[in-house]
TrEMBL record:
<dbReference type="Pfam" id="PF01370">
    <property type="entry name" value="Epimerase"/>
</dbReference>
<dbReference type="InterPro" id="IPR001509">
    <property type="entry name" value="Epimerase_deHydtase"/>
</dbReference>
<dbReference type="InterPro" id="IPR036291">
    <property type="entry name" value="NAD(P)-bd_dom_sf"/>
</dbReference>
<protein>
    <submittedName>
        <fullName>Nucleoside-diphosphate sugar epimerase</fullName>
    </submittedName>
</protein>
<feature type="domain" description="NAD-dependent epimerase/dehydratase">
    <location>
        <begin position="4"/>
        <end position="243"/>
    </location>
</feature>
<dbReference type="InterPro" id="IPR050177">
    <property type="entry name" value="Lipid_A_modif_metabolic_enz"/>
</dbReference>
Length: 321
């Protein structure tokens, strides 16, 4: 039995990670500044504790890290619109918050499992990306890159603390995770945004020509990877892509959601700049090479896109209790 601190534990991935860890017999503390509604069903377990606070609160964070064996650090501002509208908050939370946790983990020799992102690869055109491929990020006067730059920097800190302070760490790079409990409808990323339009009978807005691609990764597959990487010492000191293999264009995604939900909304196209402002640059193709994670822990995504979309749509269709 491990004592695991999950920062961002009330978030979409975090809530699943807490649930899986509790089911596996571990003791879990979720730290999150958001409302715990996604983890309320875990309150009945005596191996679950929820602390509502910011990762910028040094005293609380240090106390919780000291009480843990493993820290799974998922807390971050990860909403693309906010990279442009509140870059300072994005940098403060994602960098300063991570450093407080990282530093305390290094001092106590606690395992630090870091949620990085496929965004750190930026616009590198040579897909699929292995973990050690070059990052191609944009310039600093374009705020859109503040999120990926912050995440990339914390990846460097992991290796630096690992080398100089013997920090045990694992880096995870997520590729477009989706599913039930992922964001509120209409918020955050493309699937909940599309779904709100589908459910309300509105036009679904595809940015650009819709040919840009992503590998959509079902949340339960991603959670399985997080839990295995966190508990298996074979993963220590390394970075792992967590992503599905199927490359899907945004137009194909919209059509697949239409089909999965039996919707008949119109799909309309709008230039990306009209929605996000001129400075936002979309990534044309984002595809992981997942051979490393398969070799080390035997993981690969197994949920077909149509099934995952159906489960997601069913979840959001159900009236909330
Ligand atoms: N997108 C879209 N319509 C929307 C929201 C997003 O066409 O209403 C596109 C977006 O331009 C991008 C893709 O969907 O090409 C995925 O966007 P998301 O915000 O989910 O995150 P990203 O993968 O770009 O980090």
């Amino acid at each position: 039995m491990k004592r695991v601190l999950v920062t961002g534990g009330a978030g979409s991935i975090g809530s699943y990670v807490c649930e899986y860890l509790i089911k596996a017999g571990h003791q879990v503390t979720a730290l999150d500044n958001a409302s715990p509604y996604k983890v309320e069903h875990l309150f009945e377990s005596d191996r679950f504790r929820f602390v509502q606070d910011s990762i910028l609160g040094q005293e609380v964070v240090e106390r919780l890290v000291d009480q843990s064996d493993i820290v799974i650090h998922l807390a971050a501002i990860a909403d693309p619109k906010r990279y442009v509208t509140e870059p300072l908050n994005v940098l403060n939370v994602n960098l300063k918050g991570s450093l407080i946790i990282l530093d305390r983990c290094a001092r106590g020799g606690k395992k630090f499992v870091f949620a990085s992102t496929s965004e750190v690869m930026g616009r590198n055109p040579n897909v699929p990306w292995k973990e050690d491929a070059d990052r191609v990020l944009g310039p600093p006067n374009i705020n859109r890159w503040c999120y990926s730059t912050g995440k990339a920097l914390i990846e460097h800190y992991c290796y630096a603390y690992g080398q100089q302070e013997n920090l045990p760490f694992v880096i995870m790079r997520f590729f477009n995770v989706y599913g039930p409990r992922c964001d509120d409808l209409g918020q955050g990323r493309v699937i909940p945004i599309f779904l709100e339009k589908f459910l309300h009978g509105d036009d679904v807005v595809v940015h650009g020509d819709g040919k840009q691609t992503r590998c959509f990764t079902y949340i339960e597959d991603a959670t399985d990877a997080v839990v295995k990487l966190s508990l298996d010492d074979a993963a220590l000191g390394s970075c792992f892509n967590i992503g599905a293999n199927l490359e899907t264009s945004i137009l194909e995604l919209a059509k697949a959601m239409k089909e999965a939900g039996g919707f008949d909304n119109n799909l309309v196209f709008k230039p990306h700049a009209e929605v996000f402002g001129k400075s936002y640059e979309d990534i044309p193709r984002r595809i992981p090479d997942v051979s490393h994670i398969k070799d080390v822990i035997g993981w690969e995504a197994t949920t077909p896109l149509d099934q995952g979309l159906k489960q997601t749509i069913d979840f959001y269709r159900k009236p909330k209790a």
